TrEMBL record:
Annotated function: Adenine glycosylase active on G-A mispairs. MutY also corrects error-prone DNA synthesis past GO lesions which are due to the oxidatively damaged form of guanine: 7,8-dihydro-8-oxoguanine (8-oxo-dGTP).
Domain of life: Bacteria
EC number(s) recorded for this UniProt protein: 3.2.2.31
Family the entry assigns: Belongs to the Nth/MutY family.
PANTHER family, per the entry: ADENINE DNA GLYCOSYLASE
Protein name: Adenine DNA glycosylase
One GO biological process term: base-excision repair
GO molecular function: 4 iron, 4 sulfur cluster binding; 8-oxo-7,8-dihydroguanine DNA N-glycosylase activity; adenine/guanine mispair binding; metal ion binding; oxidized purine DNA binding; purine-specific mismatch base pair DNA N-glycosylase activity
Cofactor note: Binds 1 [4Fe-4S] cluster.
Cofactor(s), names only, from the UniProt record: [4Fe-4S] cluster
Secretion signal span: none
Species assigned in the record: Flavobacterium defluvii
Length: 355
């Protein structure tokens, strides 16, 4: 079979499967680049089921790019709270401002121009360009790597930049040039629902008579991904002050790194898990020496290991009662209006702030 015939056979089978099996997702019912951009940014590093409520919340709160641009960063971060990878939210806000103020609210109508937007990489630009403008440009994400590497038995390391170009070229050749949007949706959906990372049910797959990985019993070993992520362990001790009015103190994380511009309690970061004696000594002699401390208690039930992509945070919470009145003290109701990392917000919500 010539490659042209193979490509036609592949995309016809794939699109037929998609039309029969696709999920009913709100961003598939529009060609509005604002909503498609919003959904694509949210779905980076995030499963559809987790991202869906945020998509509805954002489109209700900010129905247009102008509404999002006019919001404060704090409003955006608060609404994003719990979705993680907060640089996405900060870039989202900056891009909304740029589109509203510099482009009169109109998103660039081509892949190359979309790439210039902050937070928009090759995959996101391809998705917006094909879904909104039907531009013939392939998407290449984890799902596409997996489907094509298995179907064609490609052992190229997907962590290498050259491999991305290889897969983009192949996807472009397979793509029907008169229907790029549906093909892109179809191949991603196929990877998400059928050709899943672990234990795919190949017996019901529409490609089980032509998939090379299945024929060669290599499904579990593809795609090839070499580089392992190095995990750093960090040890956070959050110090929850409580004054005579039951108010507390928080601070904004202004340094670059995780949780930039989110709020947290005063933090004591250590090189390992520490005990009561160590924390008590640091609090009374160094951190809060100007306060009249009348009690220190570890909220041991709130201890948690919070796993991020490159870091594992070992988090302990400590309640410190003082007889002073805090100058900038915040009550519990006000506290909940600030954007926090979800691990801290959950602690506040459970009122473990009272241990």
């Amino acid at each position: 079979m010539h490659f042209k015939d193979l490509a036609m056979d592949f995309h016809n089978t794939l699109i037929k499967w998609y039309l029969q099996n696709k999920r009913d997702l709100p961003w598939r019912k529009t060609t509005d680049p604002y909503r498609i951009w919003l959904s694509e940014i949210m779905l980076q590093q995030t499963r559809v089921v987790q991202g869906m409520p945020y998509f509805f919340a954002f489109t209700e709160e900010f129905p247009t790019v102008f509404d999002l641009a006019n919001a404060s960063e704090e409003q955006v971060l608060k609404l994003w709270q719990g979705l993680g990878y907060y640089s996405r939210a900060r870039n989202l806000h900056k891009t909304a401002k740029f589109v509203a103020e510099n482009l009169n609210g109109s998103f660039p109508p081509s892949y190359k121009e979309l790439l210039k937007l902050k937070g928009v990489g090759e995959y996101t630009a391809a998705a917006i360009a094909s879904f909104s403008y039907n531009e013939v440009v392939p998407v290449v994400d984890g799902n596409v790597f997996r489907v094509l590497s298995r179907y064609f038995d490609i052992e190229s390391d997907i962590m290498l930049p050259a491999t991305k170009k290889e897969f983009a070229k192949l996807a472009f050749e397979l793509m029907p040039k008169d229907n790029p949007a549906v093909f892109n949706q179809a191949i991603m959906e196929f990877g998400a629902l059928q050709c899943v990372p672990k234990n795919p049910n190949c017996s019901i797959c529409v490609f089980n008579d032509s998939c090379l990985a299945l024929q060669k019993k290599k499904v579990d070993s593809l795609p090839v991904k070499s580089k392992k992520v190095k995990i750093t362990n960090r040890f956070f001790n959050y110090l929850i002050l409580e004054d005579s009015l039951e108010n507390t103190l928080i601070q904004k994380r202004t340094a670059k790194g995780i949780w930039h511009n989110l709020y947290e309690f005063p933090l004591l970061e250590t090189s390992e898990i520490v005990d009561f004696d160590y924390v008590s000594k640091e609090i009374t002699k160094n951190i809060f020496s100007t306060y009249n401390i009348i009690g220190i208690e570890e909220c041991s039930e709130a201890t948690v290991i919070h796993k991020l992509s490159h870091q594992h945070l070992h988090i302990q919470f400590w309640k410190i009662k003082i007889s002073n009145v805090l100058e900038n003290g915040i009550d519990l109701k006000t506290l909940k209006t600030f954007p926090f990392p979800i691990v801290i917000y959950n602690f506040i919500e459970k009122q473990e702030i009272n241990c």
